[in-house]
Amino acid sequence: MSTGSPFTRLAGRLRRPLFTDGPFRKRGLPLGRNSRLHPSAVWTEAGKTAGQAIAPAWDAVRGAWSRRVQPVLGVVSVLGWSVLGAAVLLWAAGEAYGWQEAKAAAVAALVLFLIAVGFILGRSSYGVLLDLARTRVAVGDSAVGSIAVSNTSARPLLPADLELPVGASTAVFHLPRMKPQQVHEDLFTIPTARRAVIAVGPVRSVRADPLRLLRRQVLWTKPQDLYVHPKTVALAGSAAGFIRDLEGMPTTDLSSADVSFHALRDYVPGDDRRHIHWKTTARTNKLMVRQFEETRRAHLAISLSVNTDEYASEHEFEMAISAAASIGRQAIREQRELDVLTQAGPLRCETGRTMLDGMTRIAGTPLRKTAVDLARTLADTVPNASVVFFVVGSQVTPTQLRSAGASVPPGVRSLAVRVDAGSAPARANIGDLTVLTFGELSDLPAVLRKAAA
Q: Distance (Å, rounded) from C-alpha 169 to C-alpha 205?
């Protein structure tokens, strides 16, 4: 009689020569006269088949658990589970050793638990409206919201608590006894001391017993995101004061149609007749057309280093983000093309809101990729930029700034906006790179005006 499990016996019967030649041999597959089907392969296939067979049943059990069982078990708090466990242990000790006191304590704990059930039973019928006056504010601005709660049932509702998660904190609002159709409103203010995306909500009603053994909550609203944008300053005049010509900057490339006139040349079949210069044609007795220089529209590119090793403090890092946001915001206001790049990738700059939203999500971290590497990436990513800003911290050395400036193609104005907390505004040149240093965000417009002078 054969021994072993059915799969082992099956594997033994399947040990036979497999393909010895043919296309499998030509393809170099490891099959030959001595190839055998190993029992582990049978077990692997059996496991896969069994997993596929029980997957629907497992999904049904898991769905039933999450819909029916988990909500019930989630009502019991840590203290409640502790009381239940203590009741079981006390009863077991009383049965084992004949301790009537232990049994009495177990009964008392069970009675407390049953009394707690009475506090969470019942159904509340609320109409809850969470309203944030503004979903986007700047650092330091007030973020105000309101919660309006109405009793939508036909009977009075007992006092209850509403909880509003705000980021990592939770605000508690106490509802009084409410008559049918009565509305209760509460106002709240969210601190905006630092740049962040704060999740507000969902609003939930809470029922609990005095000992907090059981805690039942019902969600009434969906969460909302509050964007606390970096603080920005207004920049007078042009975004950087560098591009004054609204038609763009002329280049050395010639074009047959543009706005910057260059010279006259002989007419070539195919030229646009609208560009024929008739006065010269009449004087020379041959067709002459205008030749133009191609112009480059104002295109600003900002590279913002998020490598925290290049900043002396978190305050410096936040000032750098505010400086980049201020320059980018002014460029969008003047309808300039804008690209903003960090080590984490480019930011969306279709509108001022999307750009500031991206600035809000920026997180600083120590990186191996420095501001110099980011400058080289920017030169490859935005080759048509006309003005480039490198926003860096005080720990970036002049040698690194020189290397960053060398990555900019010829003909592109390059500036380094260097944040050095507490220092006086200053301007310096490192080769073709203009280095602007400021110590307070309010100094940024002044140093940009110096660069434009």
A: 16
The tokens of 18 are what? Answer: 């497999």
Q: 126-132 and 143-151 as β-strands: parallel, antiparallel, unpaired? A: antiparallel
Q: Residue 421 burial by CB count (10 A; 0-12/13-18/19+): exposed, middle or buried?
A: middle
| pLDDT tens column, 116-147 | 888 888 777 889 999 998 999 999 998 999 99
Distance from C-alpha of 289 to C-alpha of 273, rounded to nearest angstrom = 8
Asked if residues 161 and 124 have their Cβ atoms less than 8 Å apart, the reply is no
3-state secondary structure the chain: CCCCCHHHHHHHHCCCCCCCCCHHHHCCCCCCCCCCCCHHHHHHHHHHHHHHHHHHHHHHHHHHHHHHHHHHHHCECHHHHHHHHHHHHHHHHHHHHCCHHHHHHHHHHHHHHHHHHHHHCCCCCEEEEEEECCCEEECCCCEEEEEEEEECCCCCECCEEEEEEECCEEEEEEECCECCCCEEEEEEEECCCCCEEEEECCCEEEEECCCCCEEEEEECCCCEEEEEECCCCCCCCCCCCCCCCCCCEEEEEEECCCCEEEEEEECCCCCCHHHECHHHHHHHCCCEEEEEEEEECCEEEEEECCEHHHCCCHHHHHHHHHHHHHHHHHHHHCCCEEEEEECCEEECCCCHHHHHHHHHHCCCECCCCCHHHHHHHHHHHCCCCCEEEEEECCCCCHHHHHHHHHCCCCCCEEEEEEECCCCCCEEEEECCEEEEEECCHHHHHHHHHHHHC
> How much is the average pLDDT of 43-63?
78
Q: Partners of 435 in the beta sheet?
A: 416, 428
Q: CB neighbours (10 Å) of residue 57?
A: 9
* pLDDT higher than 70, residue 246: no
Q: What is the pTM of this model?
A: 0.70
